[in-house]
């Protein structure tokens, strides 16, 4: 089935939370904070591709989300970043927001646009240690990824055109 319009909901990945952890070793009784930072959430991109000809993939599946960042770990280990998500659209696709304002017009192959930015990872408790607060028992959460609703429209060019007046016996 040929589809030339689609409404989709997209969400970039959330950032991972920072870790609350303390260094514990055999002969070091009070090692101090060593919580790692959270990983960044994955971004969401739209990419123009010649291998796609219609928007029928987006007529079936309406919601897309990038991967979340992992939480921080002990020993000042940062959590893994979320993977980016690339959605393929055919050439001639116009991306619009809910108010029908155009965001981007894909004309040639390999055009790429960042459509939703992933959240930042939170800080671990090592960032909050000071001379007066030597063992913080808190960490910062990661930020949320962007969430949007988009309208995809495919501009069509006719392969055959009829010339002449209407009802002229064509």
Gyration radius, to the nearest Å? 25 Å
Helical proportion, percent range: under 10%
Strand pairing plus helix content: what structural class?
Answer: mainly beta
Report the sheet-strand fraction. Answer: 15-25%
Distance N to C terminus: 29 Å
Largest sheet: 5 strands, mixed
- Poorly predicted sequence stretches spanning 5 or more consecutive residues: none
Q: Topology as H/E string?
A: EEHEEEEEE
Number of strands: 8
Question: Can you characterise this structure?
Answer:
The chain is mainly β and 170 residues long. Helices cover 3% and strands 24% of the residues. The protein has 1 helix and 8 strands. The strands form 2 sheets. The protein has a 5-stranded mixed beta sheet with strand order 3-1-8-5-6. A hairpin with a 5-residue loop joins β5 and β6. The radius of gyration is 25 Å and the shape is rod-shaped. It starts with a strand and ends in a 16-residue tail after the last strand. 35% of the residues are buried. The model has no long low-confidence stretch (mean pLDDT 89).
Quick recap:
The chain has 170 residues and is an all-beta fold.
Outline the fold blueprint.
Blueprint: E1 5-11, E2 44-48, H1 56-60, E3 63-65, E4 85-89, E5 93-96, E6 102-105, E7 112-116, E8 147-154
Describe this protein with a few key phrases:
three-stranded mixed sheet, single chain, 170 residues, mainly beta
